[in-house]
Amino acid sequence: MSTTERSAPEPAPSTAEAPGSADGRPVDPGASPVPDTATDAATPAAPVDETWLDGERLALRPEVEKIQGADDQQLLFSTDEGRYTRLSRSGAQLVKLLDGRRTGRQIQAAVEKMGPAGERLSPSIPPFLAELRQANVLNVAPAEERGAQKLARRAGGPLMKRLPLTRSTHAVVAPAARLAERTPKAIRAGLLPLLLSFAVTLVAFALFSGPSAAGAFVPVAIVVLLAQITTHELAHAFACERRGVPVREAGIGLMLGVIPVAYVDRTDAYRVRSRKGRAAIALAGPANDLLWTGACAAVVLTTSGIVAETATLVLFFQLALLAANLNLILPTDGYHAIEAMAGEMNFRGRATSYVVHRVLRQPLPSTLQAVSRRRRAAYVSFVVAAVLYGVLFVGLTAVAILAAM
Questions:
Q1: Which of 9, 102, 143, 213 is a Cys-bridge partner for 106, taking CB atoms 3.0 to 4.6 Å apart?
Q2: Domain count, the chain
Q3: 373 CB contacts (<8 Å, ≥6 apart)?
């Protein structure tokens, strides 16, 4: 497995937080564009404590720096927490007012003096500053949240509990990255597609002409699969290394709290400005898996007896892992590759946040208020599909386990 946008109509400010998740994905907290009252009439505004806006003069925390990241978007990076907060163009301009010389109300008043556009934007300033506060980038501690409000804000967050095993992947992949850098570009561009195509061909022949797995030696199959999983994560780390992205850690985790997976934390891939670069990082693992699957198919086709049967068993598991890791519902490598190429940032997190806020009857974060009806329909459809996929996956897994007993 392998790491946020809240799009808002300009000139409304917009933020979207991206704390590193179990496998490097970010998560959104919310944002603050002007709400679309036509589409949010059914959502009553909850009373909000804005007295803090009259107190402290606001500034970014000393540990927060402003950088340019994915798709040249403006990001705030909390160096002490390793968290990213995305800003729209107007949000980035408003952040310039956080110079420690004005309170929140004074910032709002300064915006109002900018003419008609400032007057229209003024009502969105308090929620925008509140979103920044909850993202913990201001010099004011986040407000305490309880109950449904706290649950709604956490919706769309990491789906995995993790156990870090190493923070030294650089030492492992750096030599390979240097070797790749010295390899002529034409060879790099042509060799991998050629190998992947060959692997697909071998797999096709093995599936139609290979033996059954009845006599497979299971311990060997397990060792091979563990080796493949290890190189899968190293492939992600290698792709990060090639693009100057640090890998914070690698380890094992429990997806949805029950499914064991390996991961590398590649949150900092949000510093890669090109979509192709981020997609390449996501697809490095599946490419590794396909090469392993092709090698296993070659063993199936060139051997016999217990060796061929064990390789057949491994091949079936490899194909299942590939299919699972390329689905577009759970936050897998396939999902992140499509998300990167589409220029999206944490679509799953925003969709989940929208649905949970609606179900719990909590006021929507202002970014979600501003999106179109079509976008909201896409959020709901995605969450429904994800739930159905999860139920189907758990059901089929239970059937397989019962059948094997």
A1: 102
A2: 2
A3: 39
